[in-house]
Amino acid sequence: MMEEAEKIKVRYEKRRNNDAGKNENAVFIENVIKERETVYSKILKEHFSEIDKVKFIEIGAGEGANIDFFRSLGIKDENIVAAELLPERAATLREKYPKITVSEGDALHLNFENYFDIVFQSLVFTSILDDDFKKSLAHKMWDMLKPGGIILWYDFKFNNPANKDVKGVTKAEIKQLFPSVNEIAFYNVTLAPPVGRRVGSMYEFVNSVFPFLRTHLIAVIKK
User: Fold this and answer.
1) Is the sign of the CA dihedral 214, 216, 222, 223 positive or negative?
2) Is 164 helix (H, G, I), strand (E, B) or coil?
3) Which H or E run contains 103?
4) Residue 11 is inside which H or E element, if any?
5) CA–CA distance from 52 to each of 55, 71, 90, 140 (Å)?
6) pTM assigned to the model
């Protein structure tokens, strides 16, 4: 039977092929990124007084779009680890960021204990359909986190009926993945894409007036 990590690779490849040639709504994407990065900035300011000393890892770093943002906040290249499953993306990361550490392959094989101040994942867990793999990866993230550090989480909470290769992760499931944590801070973000793509420059207004249309969660899970 194919291991879950290999299945994830297949899902990403399928998604890339399906997305090829699509022209995503640029205004929508800009608003989504602006909204979540505003929340990230607030969270980091609340938790860390010396950003330049923060040790950071992203699980599923892709080609570095999120890393660019966290570098802009002052996290140093030598304190960043980019963990990426797909070889071609890992190669891109090495080329773009020669001073950061790129770890290629299954994140379950990472060997950092009580090391990072921030363990970050964005849109990774919803691509994992195996519950045991989810639990193992959550445990690995927790194990890598220093006491006083945070897991920073961004993912969607609803299933996508048009895409059976992803599965939403709710607040309740996040709490189950980190059972030793007494309190998790949640932020509801990201206007539902079918709506967000239609409203254009009215994104912020619609998002503020109809918060129940937000489909994603940012979670702060403190050790």
Assistant:
1) positive
2) coil
3) strand 101-104
4) helix 4-19
5) 9, 9, 24, 24
6) 0.93
